[in-house]
């Protein structure tokens, strides 16, 4: 406990003296203030006189006092660098005694003078608390016009207020002009205003200052007078403002820092500026400004900057160490780095050297200096013809390194006219779709020129082009077409086998295997006499033609393409007209001819019919006969057309009984062909006995392939007449004149005259007549024709095409190949076999059934060609060969296969939607739709919808904005699905890592912190650790701390990196019980703020204060009443700055008579009734306070 003893002078008198009424004023003026500009006035009207002016020594260089007028004014040019403190304080003492009053009134006024200008800096010292001030703001000029646009700010009221360590809010009202309004501590103009500096312009404002100290806090007031113009600011103006002021409370003496060398201070503590990219080196960025209240070398500052987070920034910017001007060193590129953060240091030249730190964040603004860039310069895609409308062909993508405002890309097709109008492009997504029918036969390839335009405005839009090649794949939608509806060819019957007779052609508008045409004979080739090459369409003659057998052939040809399924055309007709050739000489039905004739036959008698046949036709078969080897007066002649020999001269057996001559048959062909035969003519005598056959019936067998002239049988008849000559004729049953008979050695020799045909006639019954010229006898000859191997097997077609699914089991019958043979028996029994051994297939030798021997695989081989031979069992064996093409149909038995086991991609978290991340690719060994692959996330994992995969290209793109802080790594699962039925699919894992960008501001644990600190803690003590967290990572999560509000004057220092908050002065509870500062955490360019309440804990470190005082009272005693005070007349004027201390009062000396009654707890004083008398009394007492 501290005890203070002080004297109390007690005087009883009749008047009371009052003194030390104090006012406090704040004055703002420019360093270019004109001479005689008033600073202070003690009033007008002569009521007060200026007694004295107390001012700093350095201020006396530019102020003077007019005691007569009671005005302090500017007397010389103000030089800010010479000011030891700014603001500085001067005091005026005025004697304002009133001649009509006995009370003497002495007034002391305080003026805080703030000097403003380019070379001025604030050198604040802690000021006394204040209640009400009048602020006079002066602006002067040379008469130029000054204009302010509507909504612009004129000045901040905070800059005019005295320094206070407590939080405050201000509310002002303009009282003299409706063209202005106040908001958030600043004065704004409602409409565009202009004024001239050579004319007077004034504005008054009333403001209330509200400390944020809880309920009951004292509200302070301030009046602001703002003046623009030249000339003196008159005493009357200042007096009017002073009349608006009220007296202030007694001030609290401020505590000073222990250090005499002050640290510099940045204002503001954090700089955030922007500079456009591509500006030339040397471009001004910002001027850094720190102030140091010290004088001389201790106040001279040097500036330094050091890059934070990225050392590359050091090479791009430089600072002038003398004036703090920051400029570029190189041309900046926003796309390389868009934000540069520096630690700014200001160092004075005092001893020791002191520093101040701030942060400088330079944002490089974007200009449109990048063209869009396509992911590929040339795109290639294949599509099938006949696609549906709106089919997505492919997606083109372009990126732009500029910011989004200059990188908003739109797509268009530059050459969309003509045939390209079947395609369209989505201007936003770049998806190219079909809008018309794609027909390969019309256009088989397209070339689109696609433009990407970034829509930029500064300095203008940029564009890029890419080429899109679209190849149209063929569908088998066209059947082969024959070059002619009917082919007619004339073939001589003597044309040699294996000779080409015709070229059949057909074309198919499709492409590839769909356009490969195979030919085959569908019908009309029953005897297999023709063959058509399946590949070339050349038709060959397989076997000799015979006009006499068949004069014309009509063949139906099939043209079939190689599509899946194949298309065919069976409308092709080939007419083969066989041309007759004179290739057959006449053949006599019998040779030699023998005849007898009675010698008594009349002239003209027809003896024998000479007959020959010619297998040719027309003139080639028309015959003419003549006799040869005749003598003069020859008794016989022959009809050259009919071949009958008649008697032309009477016969005389006794003269000539036998004639032997020849006969010739000649056709009319070119060249003509002829045959000769001999005739024996016997002249018979007349007889009367019939010839008698030795057998009435003959039974014979003859093979159908017997040659012409083959002897069948010799019949014999006996005539009992002497010298009788028996002749033989076939009288009936000789169908088609297949047989002939001649007389030889008394018998009749039957021979084969024409070829036999087992299929036409299997038995002949011949009636044979034996005649002696007049009488005759008959017999039957039965000739049974036996079959011969005269025909080869014939396939129905020279080329077969069948198909089979690849998944059919082993042993499946593919097709049954059948051939026919017009023979019978063994000659017609056919055996089938393959010419070449193909292990996948086998053929049943009896049935011709072709079956699979192994499993088929379309992906290994798509087709097989088998040469199959049909052979009969005749002697000799005959055969025919056909070709079987087996097409293996694809079955969807192969799942798609990705080219990699898994895929990995990275993407920045701030990329725009639809950015390409990674591309997956899969193949399918199947064909057609079974092998067409599309990609999907369906059934897999798409990152909860954050990604999309293009179905045709497999490009994985972002679908939404990403946030690394929520999902740093995506594990996606995509599928490659074919279009088979049923569809097969394969999955693949895709890992996408999201790369961090600085998109999260630091976060304090709470918005407000309460910190308790004991007063008198040593300078440099760590008051608290301020910390914030940043969900970003790496350099994006580095945080810098600084105090941005409430640290005026500089009481605390916050370490920029660690967040340690330290005290820079002795903390005194009695001077300030609470500090409120605003701290900022910066992760450039993002910031967060928090309010820190630093509350001091009071300690008993102050002695009670008590000064000598007097109590003077006057006791008026009248007959009516007494003015003697009976209650409390006052209290001991003692105080203790320690708020927690309880004072105790007691008399030490002088009150032994108990004339004064003292309350020892409250210090209240009462007078004893013993003093109620008419005796003057003066007493001196000593009081102690503890």
Give the topology, please.
Elements: E1 4-11, E2 21-30, E3 38-41, E4 49-54, E5 63-66, E6 71-74, E7 88-95, E8 106-116, E9 132-139, E10 145-148, E11 153-156, E12 168-174, E13 180-183, E14 186-189, E15 193-196, E16 201-211, E17 220-228, H1 235-243, E18 265-266, E19 270-276, E20 284-287, E21 290-291, E22 301-308, E23 317-319, E24 325-328, E25 339-348, E26 355-365, E27 373-374, E28 378-384, E29 392-395, E30 398-399, E31 410-413, E32 423-425, E33 431-434, E34 445-453, E35 463-473, E36 481-482, E37 486-492, E38 500-503, E39 506-507, E40 517-523, E41 530-532, E42 538-541, E43 552-561, E44 568-579, E45 587-588, E46 593-598, E47 606-609, E48 612-613, E49 623-628, E50 636-638, E51 644-647, E52 658-667, E53 674-684, E54 692-693, E55 697-703, E56 711-718, E57 727-732, E58 739-744, E59 747-752, E60 763-771, E61 776-786, E62 794-795, E63 799-805, E64 813-816, E65 819-820, E66 830-834, E67 841-843, E68 849-852, E69 863-872, E70 879-889, E71 897-898, E72 902-908, E73 916-919, E74 922-923, H2 928-931, E75 933-941, E76 947-949, E77 955-958, E78 969-978, ...
Parallel strand pairs: 1-90, 2-8, 2-9, 9-17, 19-26, 28-35, 37-44, 46-53, 55-61, 63-70, 72-79, 81-88
Antiparallel strand pairs: 1-96, 3-6, 4-7, 5-6, 7-8, 10-15, 11-14, 12-16, 13-14, 16-17, 18-21, 20-24, 22-25, 23-24, 25-26, 27-30, 29-33, 31-34, 32-33, 34-35, 36-39, 38-42, 40-43, 41-42, 43-44, 45-48, 47-51, 49-52, 50-51, 52-53, 54-56, 56-59, 57-60, 58-59, 60-61, 62-65, 64-68, 66-69, 67-68, 69-70, ...
Protein name: Cadherin domain-containing protein
Subcellular location: Membrane
Signal peptide: 1-24
């Amino acid at each position: 406990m501290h005890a203070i003893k002080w004297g109390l002078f007690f005087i009883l008198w009749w008047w009371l003296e009052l003194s030390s009424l104090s006012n406090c004023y704040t004055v703002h003026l420019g360093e270019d203030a004109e001479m005689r500009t008033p600073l202070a006035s003690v009033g007008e009207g002569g009521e007060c006189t200026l007694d004295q002016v107390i001012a700093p020594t350095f201020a006396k260089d530019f102020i003077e006092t007019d005691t007569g007028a009671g005005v302090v004014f500017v007397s010389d040019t103000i030089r800010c660098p010479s000011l030891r403190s700014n603001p500085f304080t001067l005091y005026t003492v005025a004697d304002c005694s009133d001649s009509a009053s006995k009370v003497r009134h002495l007034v002391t006024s305080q003026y805080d003078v703030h000097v403003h200008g380019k070379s001025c800096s604030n050198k604040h010292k802690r000021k006394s608390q204040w209640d009400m001030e009048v602020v006079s703001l002066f602006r002067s000029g040379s008469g130029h016009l000054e204009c302010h646009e509507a909504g612009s700010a004129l000045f901040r009221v905070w800059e005019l207020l005295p320094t206070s360590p407590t939080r405050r809010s201000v509310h002002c009202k303009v009282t003299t002009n409706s063209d202005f309004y106040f908001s958030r501590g600043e004065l704004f103009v409602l409409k565009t205003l202009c004024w001239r500096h050579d004319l007077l312009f004034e504005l008054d404002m009333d403001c209330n200052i509200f400390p944020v100290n809880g309920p009951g806090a004292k509200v302070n007031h301030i009046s602001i007078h703002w003046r623009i113009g030249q000339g003196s600011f008159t005493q009357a103006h200042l007096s009017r403002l002073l009349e608006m002021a009220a007296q202030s409370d007694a001030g609290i003496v401020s505590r000073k820092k222990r250090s005499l060398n002050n640290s510099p201070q940045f204002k503001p503590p954090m700089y955030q500026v922007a500079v456009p990219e591509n500006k030339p080196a040397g471009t001004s960025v910002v001027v850094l400004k720190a102030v140091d209240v010290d004088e001389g070398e201790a106040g001279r500052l040097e500036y330094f900057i050091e890059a934070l987070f990225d050392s590359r920034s050091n090479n791009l910017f430089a600072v002038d160490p003398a004036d703090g001007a920051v400029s570029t060193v190189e041309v900046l590129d926003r796309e390389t780095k868009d934000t540069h953060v520096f630690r700014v240091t200001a160092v004075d030249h005092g001893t020791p050297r002191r520093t101040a730190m701030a942060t400088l964040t330079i944002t490089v603004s974007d200009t449109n200096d990048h063209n869009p860039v396509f992911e590929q310069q040339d795109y290639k895609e294949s599509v099938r013809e006949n696609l549906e409308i709106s089919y997505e062909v492919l997606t083109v993508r372009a990126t732009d390194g500029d910011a989004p405002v200059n990188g908003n890309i739109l797509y268009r097709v530059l050459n969309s006219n003509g045939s390209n109008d079947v395609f369209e492009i989505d201007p936003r997504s770049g998806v190219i779709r079909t809008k018309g029918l794609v027909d390969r036969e019309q256009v088989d390839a397209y070339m689109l020129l696609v433009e990407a335009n970034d829509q930029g405005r500064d300095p203008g839009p940029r564009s890029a082009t890419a080429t899109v090649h679209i190849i149209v794949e063929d569908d088998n939608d066209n059947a082969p077409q024959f070059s002619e509806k009917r082919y007619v060819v004339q073939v001589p019957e003597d044309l040699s086998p294996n000779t080409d007779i015709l070229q059949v052609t057909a074309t198919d508008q499709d492409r590839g295997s769909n356009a490969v045409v195979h030919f085959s004979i569908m019908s009309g080739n029953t005897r297999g006499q023709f063959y058509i090459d399946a590949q070339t369409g050349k038709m060959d003659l397989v076997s000799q033609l015979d006009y006499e057998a068949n004069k014309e052939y009509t063949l139906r040809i099939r043209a079939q393409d190689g599509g899946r399924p194949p298309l065919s055309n069976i409308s092709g007709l080939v007419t083969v007209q066989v041309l007759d050739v004179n290739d057959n000489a006449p053949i006599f039905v019998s040779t030699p001819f023998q005849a007898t004739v009675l010698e008594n036959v009349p002239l003209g008698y027809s003896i024998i019919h000479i007959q020959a046949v010619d297998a040719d036709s027309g003139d080639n078969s028309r015959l003419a006969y003549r006799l040869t080897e005749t003598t003069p007066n020859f008794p016989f002649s022959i009809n050259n057309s009919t071949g009958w020999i008649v008697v032309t001269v009477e016969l005389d057996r006794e003269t000539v009984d036998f004639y032997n001559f020849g006969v010739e048959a000649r056709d009319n062909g070119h060249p003509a062909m002829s045959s000769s035969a001999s005739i024996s003519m016997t002249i018979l005598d007349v007889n009367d006995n019939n010839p008698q056959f030795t057998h009435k019936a003959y039974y014979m067998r003859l093979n159908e392939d017997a040659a012409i002239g083959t002897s069948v049988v010799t019949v014999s008849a006996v005539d009992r007449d002497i010298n009788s000559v028996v002749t033989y004729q076939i009288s009936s049953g000789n169908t088609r004149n297949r047989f002939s008979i001649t007389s030889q050695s008394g018998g009749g020799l039957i021979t084969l005259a024409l070829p036999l045909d087992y299929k036409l006639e299997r038995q002949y019954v011949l009636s044979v007549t034996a005649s002696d010229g007049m009488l005759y006898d008959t017999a039957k000859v039965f000739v049974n024709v036996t079959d011969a191997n005269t025909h080869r097997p014939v396939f129905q077609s020279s080329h077969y095409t069948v198909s089979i699914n690849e998944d059919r089991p082993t042993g499946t019958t593919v097709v049954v190949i059948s051939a026919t043979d017009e023979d019978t028996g063994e000659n017609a029994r056919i055996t089938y076999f393959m010419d070449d051994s193909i292990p996948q297939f086998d053929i049943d030798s009896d049935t011709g059934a072709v079956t699979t021997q192994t499993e088929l695989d379309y992906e290994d081989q798509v087709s097989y060609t088998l040469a199959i031979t049909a052979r009969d069992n005749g002697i000799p064996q005959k055969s025919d060969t056909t070709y079987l093409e087996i097409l293996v149909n694809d079955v969807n038995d192969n799942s798609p296969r990705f080219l990699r086991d898994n895929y990995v991609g990275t993407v920045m978290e701030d990329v725009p939607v639809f950015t390409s991340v990674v591309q997956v690719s899969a193949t399918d060994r199947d064909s057609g739709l079974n092998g067409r692959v599309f990609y999907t996330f369906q059934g897999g994992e798409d990152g909860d919808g954050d990604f999309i995969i293009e179905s045709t290209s497999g490009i994985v793109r972002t679908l939404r904005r990403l946030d690394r802080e929520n999902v740093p790594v995506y594990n996606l699962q995509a599928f490659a699905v074919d279009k088979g039925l049923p569809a097969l699919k394969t999955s693949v894992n895709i890992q996408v890592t999201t790369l961090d960008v600085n998109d999260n501001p630091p976060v304090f644990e709470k918005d407000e912190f309460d910190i308790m600190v004991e007063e008198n803690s040593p300078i440099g003590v760590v008051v608290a650790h301020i910390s914030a967290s940043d969900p970003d990572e790496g350099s994006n999560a580095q945080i810098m701390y600084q105090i941005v509000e409430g640290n005026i004057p500089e009481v605390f220092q916050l370490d920029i990196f660690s967040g340690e908050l330290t005290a820079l002065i002795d903390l005194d509870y009695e001077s300030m019980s609470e500090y409120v500062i605003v701290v900022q955490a910066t992760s450039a360019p993002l910031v967060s703020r928090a309010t820190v309440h630093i509350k001091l804990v009071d300690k008993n470190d102050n002695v009670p204060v008590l000064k000598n005082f007097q109590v003077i009272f006057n006791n008026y005693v009248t007959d009516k009443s007494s003015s003697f005070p009976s209650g409390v007349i006052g209290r001991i004027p003692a105080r203790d700055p320690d708020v927690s201390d309880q004072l105790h009062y007691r008399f030490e000396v002088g009150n032994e008579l108990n004339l004064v009654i003292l309350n020892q707890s409250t210090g209240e004083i009462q007078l004893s009734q013993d003093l109620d008398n008419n005796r003057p009394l003066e007493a001196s007492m000593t009081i102690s306070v503890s």
